[in-house]
């Protein structure tokens, strides 16, 4: 059997259709996580976050973030030792790895066990309250 241009067109069409079907199947298998399940409510409260950042800037203080072989450590300044609030480890590419903790300071630090965290890039989002004054700090952090 001899191949002519008609056979070539059919072969090209079949290969193209196979490629398109493969891309569509792979696209449906991909998992897309939203930034937040409560996205719209978070947007409504965004002005509070801006105010909290402004309060932190006006205080002149900053939280310090560090890690050792087994822990991630958040250090609060002396003026924030009475803090109550939340520490959220936000993993941008997979919501499954997000973790949230209540602030419970030992001295002026709080430690988090690295075995509970996946290795990778996090945004550590700390929201705390002292004397009805809200504060917020966010830091890009890579857990090794």
Write structural notes for this entry:
The structure is a single chain. The chain has 3 helices and 7 strands; from the N terminus they run H-H-H-E-E-E-E-E-E-E. It is of the alpha+beta class. It is elongated.
Notable traits:
single chain, 3 helices, Immunoglobulin-like, four-stranded antiparallel β-sheet, alpha+beta, 144 residues, 7 strands, 2 domains
Strands, helices and their partners?
Layout: H1 5-29, H2 39-44, H3 46-59, E1 64-67, E2 71-75, E3 84-90, E4 99-102, E5 109-113, E6 120-130, E7 133-143
Antiparallel strand pairs: 1-2, 2-5, 3-4, 3-6, 6-7
What letter string, H or E per element, gives the SSE order?
HHHEEEEEEE
Mean pLDDT: 91
The chain-level structural class is alpha+beta
Which sequence of strands runs across the widest sheet?
4-3-6-7
CATH superfamily of the largest domain: Immunoglobulins
Q: The biggest beta sheet, please?
A: 4 strands, antiparallel
CA-CA gap between termini: 61 Å
How many β-strand stretches? 7
- Structurally, the number of domains stands at 2
Indicate the CATH class of the largest domain: Mainly Beta
Would you identify the CATH architecture of the largest domain?
Sandwich
Number of helices: 3
What characteristic shape results from the CA principal axes?
Answer: elongated
Q: Percent helix among the residues?
A: 25-40%
């Amino acid at each position: 059997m001899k191949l002519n241009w008609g056979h070539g067109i059919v072969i090209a069409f079949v290969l193209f259709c196979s490629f398109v079907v493969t891309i569509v199947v792979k696209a449906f298998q991909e998992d897309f996580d939203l930034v937040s399940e409560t996205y719209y409510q978070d947007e409504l409260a965004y002005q509070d976050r801006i105010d909290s950042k402004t309060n932190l800037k006006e205080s002149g203080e900053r939280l310090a973030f560090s890690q050792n072989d087994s822990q991630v450590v958040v250090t609060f300044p002396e003026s924030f030792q009475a803090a109550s609030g939340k520490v959220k480890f936000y993993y941008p590419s997979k919501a499954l790895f997000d973790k949230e903790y209540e602030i419970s300071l030992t001295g002026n630090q709080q430690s988090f066990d690295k075995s509970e965290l996946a290795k990778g890039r996090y945004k550590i989002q700390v929201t705390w309250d002292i004397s009805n004054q809200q504060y917020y700090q966010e830091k890009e952090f890579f857990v090794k």
